[in-house]
From TrEMBL:
This is Cadmium transporter. GO terms for molecular function: cadmium ion transmembrane transporter activity; ferrous iron transmembrane transporter activity; zinc efflux antiporter activity. It is a multi-pass membrane protein. Its main location: membrane. Pfam families: Cation_efflux (PF01545), ZT_dimer (PF16916). The keyword RNA-binding does not apply. GO terms for biological process: intracellular zinc ion homeostasis. Keywords: Membrane, Transmembrane, Transmembrane helix, Transport. The keyword Acyltransferase does not apply.
Length: 307
């Protein structure tokens, strides 16, 4: 019996979470459309339309995670981990389409506000509140596991679902206020605000995913930990320079040059490289490290000095 590696286990967990997202999104979609039918509120209708995007985004995340889990091959020697970023980009595009649909529904009602046919619709508001509570619980799960598994797809899905929760709560408060005060223009106005909010959410998702596709470096804290590990574990080397890092989904690529005395043997230099790799992996799991060894005359006298 073959035991899956830690990386394979992480991929399997991420795929199961993405599959769970599809199920939760479908349930929430049904509840929100039921709430709309019970209230005849255009704001709740816009909230339900956004839930269609949640379903599509969950499906895209599941597909992307399945692709990202594939091992490296001849055509993709660095693996398929960047596939996760494409689901976030696709989600951003879908969000824009949802916002356009919401605005199309809300604008005519805003220009000619009228009391809805659904009465106070307290039952419908309660149904929508239940859907929002389910979304909040699942968003918390996605965000926690997304950080643990370092999965851009899960984090993007979790952030989007959490933004949906904030939007839904705002809509519920506004719709209730519109029913109690008789200011019926509040309903379509809130729908317009929903559209603007999800556009902002879409922009954040696209921005973060494009950073990954463009090989953005790791954050400052991660780089500081990598440099500290290099400095303490590189005993025997003279210096290390030209450190370069980038993310590809859950995988981090790290490469740098290591300067050693010119008369050092290959075996000795290789032992230093092994120590460096072990130390760096303790601070940055799931990383691919490439070290270029150079003789002393290649020193640049800057970068990471060995303690």
């Amino acid at each position: 019996m073959t035991v899956p590696s830690a990386s394979q286990q992480s991929s399997q967990r991420a795929s199961r979470l993405a599959l769970g997202s599809i199920l939760v999104a479908v349930v929430v979609l049904g509840l929100k459309f039921l709430a709309y039918l019970l209230t005849d509120s255009v704001a709740l209708y816009s909230d339900a339309l956004e839930s269609i995007i949640n379903v599509a985004a969950a499906v895209a995340a599941f597909i992307a995670l399945r692709v990202a889990a594939r091992p490296a091959d001849a055509n993709h020697p660095y693996g398929h981990t960047k596939a996760e970023y494409f689901s976030a980009v696709a989600e951003g595009v879908l969000i824009v389409l949802a916002a356009a649909a919401i605005m199309r529904e809300a604008l005519p009602v805003l220009m000619n506000p009228a009391p809805p046919e659904g009465g106070t619709g307290l039952v419908g508001l309660g149904v929508n509140l239940g859907a929002s509570a389910l979304n909040a619980l699942w968003a918390t799960v996605l965000l926690r596991h997304g950080r643990t598994l370092r999965s851009p797809a899960l984090l993007a899905d979790g952030r989007h679902v959490m933004s949906d929760v904030v939007t839904s709560v705002g809509v519920l408060v506004g719709v209730l206020a519109a029913r109690l005060t008789g200011l019926h223009w509040l309903d379509p106005l809130l729908a317009m605000l929903v559209a603007l909010n999800i556009l902002w959410s879409g922009w954040l998702l696209v921005r973060d995913s494009v950073g990954g596709l463009m090989d953005a470096a790791v954050d400052t804290d991660t780089e500081r930990r990598i440099r500290a590990a290099m400095s303490t574990a590189g005993v025997g080397a003279l210096e290390m320079h030209d450190l370069r890092t980038r993310h590809a989904g859950s995988l981090t690529f790290i490469e740098f040059h290591m300067v050693v005395p010119g008369d050092m043997t290959v075996t000795e230099a290789h032992a230093i490289c092994d120590r460096l790799e072990d130390a760096i992996r303790e601070t940055t799991p799931d990383c691919s490290i490439n070290i270029h060894v150079e003789p002393a005359d290649k020193a640049k006298h800057h970068g990471v000095l060995v303690l």
